Amino acid sequence: MFPFIRNFAHVMKKVYLTLAALAVLSTHAATNDSIDGRYYRLFAPVTFYHDVAQEQLALTANRQKDDIDNAIERALVHVYLNRPDLVKVTETEQQASGTLRQDIIEKPVAEVADLVDQAEPIPDEPVMETVVVEVQKPNFWKYKGDGSLQFMQNYVSDNWYKGGESYYSAVASLTLEANYDNKSKFKWENKLEMKLGFQTSRADSVHKFKTNEDLLRYTGKVGLQAAKNWYYTLQMLAYTQFAQGFKANDIRTYSDFLSPLTVSIGLGMDYKVSWLNKKLTGTINMSPLAVNYKYVGRSSFRKKNDPTVEEFDWFPSRYGIDQDKHHKTDFGSQFTASLTWVVNDVLTWKTRLYGFTSYHRAEMEWENTFTLKVSKFISANLFLFPRFDDSNKRDKDLGFWQFKEYSSLGFSYNF
Fold first, then answer.
1. How many Cβ atoms from other residues are within 10 Å of residue 239's Cβ?
2. 91 three-class SS
3. Which of 15, 160, 180, 260 has most Cβ atoms within 10 angstroms of its Cβ?
4. Which has the higher per-residue pLDDT, 125 or 197?
């Protein structure tokens, strides 16, 4: 037990001497710009230094020593006397190996540079600036449209062996759309279509110009999403024409602004079409509950500039309206499909199919426009329009069917 206590006391004494030397080191380092290289003896592998032993055995001091030398020598002598087993090498062996630097022993080694001065300076903390955050309300409206001006011309000389008639015509069209979709199951779509065209004919001695295309139509839908592509929808259609409509060599007027005016409102479902890799797009609307209102402002027509001549037939009757009335309301069901098929970069097909039935009468319209793109601003159109309406008088050849067709070439622009 006693040898253990004695060894422990020796170790603690060495620790004390080492700490005392470190205290002197810290005090010296705090008051000086350089660190004394003599301290490396305390932290290097334990070496037997001859000068330390000679200083301790000499009767008189050989050189002037300061507190650092005394502290270091006392720590080393304590180890030499009490723990010689820790001494692994002598100063002579160390000098023979060429690893001992006399300049470190003889004088302190000053630092070449202050590391603090060489280090990258710490940047100042940036001054916090007030940031104005502007939150813009998303725009759920989308606008688009297209317009065209098409021309048609046919010339036949008076002595042409097959006969025929020369004519000139032009058709202008403009379609505008404003659609609202809040990406949260609600949509509101608005579409305004306008077409107006005139033609001349040598054989018509009554009219210098007649309309060959006349349409003013508004389509509006309010929808609430029910599934992925299905919406509960309230749809309204309203259409009339701009100008009076005539037939060749006939003084009677067959149509006029608000004569007729048709307004159809339906409640049902709307399906958004996106087929053939999104080349065929549009909507299909089915309204099992619909009301169709037809209004005719004109009543009857006299021959031009001759009010004394007997009146023609009751004008509204041409549209299924009873005598002495100007409007008619039917309840039933309606179907509307409006599709666009981009066949390729050159050919596009736009179609609109509309049908209404009151279960006493039926009306159907199928508009087809084939557009052949010649260049960026020039295109050729083919328009086919079959129509069925059993509220009109029955034709001896076509029955209740009607048909319209024209082809044209002109300018077009999409925006």
1. 17
2. helix
3. 260
4. 197
| Contact assessment for residue 51 and residue 85, using Cβ atoms and an 8 Å cutoff | no
Q: What are phi and psi of 96, to 5 degrees?
A: -65, -30
Which H, E and C letters describe 248-293, residue by residue?
CCCCCCCEECCECEEEEEEEEEEEEEEECCCCEEEEEEEEEEEEEE
Amino acid letter, 355: G
Task: Report the alpha-carbon distance of residue 144 to residue 122 in Å, rounded.
Answer: 57
pLDDT of 251 strictly over 60: yes
For residues 75 and 82, the answer to whether their CB atoms sit within 8 Å is no
Amino acid in the structure at residue 121: P
Q: Which tokens in the block code for residue 139?
A: 């725009």
**127: how many CB neighbours lie within 10 A of its CB?**
5
Question: How many other CB atoms sit within 10 Å of the CB of residue 186?
Answer: 14
Q: Tell me the backbone φ, ψ of residue 210, rounded to 5 degrees.
A: -135, 150
How many whole angstroms separate alpha carbon 302 and alpha carbon 391? 24
> Which helix H or strand E contains 404, and what residues bound it?
strand 401-414
CA–CA separation, 179 vs 221, rounded Å? 9
Q: Residues 152-174: what's their mean pLDDT?
A: 77
Three-state SS at 245: strand
Dihedral sign for Cα 162, 163, 168, 170, please: negative
pLDDT tens digits, one per residue of 80-128: 788 777 777 777 777 777 655 555 555 555 555 555 555 666 667 766 7
| CA atoms of 260 and 258, how far apart (whole Å) | 5
CA–CA separation, 256 vs 326, rounded Å?
14
298: amino acid identity, one letter? R
pTM of the full structure? 0.64
Long-range Cβ pairs for the range 368-375 (8 Å, 24+)? 371/347, 371/412, 372/346, 372/347, 373/345, 373/346, 373/347, 373/348, 373/412, 374/409
The residue to which tokens 């309010």 are assigned: 222
Query: What was the pLDDT predicted at 121?
Result: 67
CA distance 334 to 267: 9
- Going from the C-alpha of 44 to that of each of 25, 57, 251, the distances in angstroms are 16, 24, 126
Q: What is the pLDDT of residue 371?
A: 95
Q: Using DSSP bridges, classify how beta strands 280-295 and 261-275 pair: parallel, antiparallel or unpaired.
A: antiparallel
Cis peptide before 288 (omega within 30 of 0): no
Tokens at residue 213, please? Answer: 């295309």
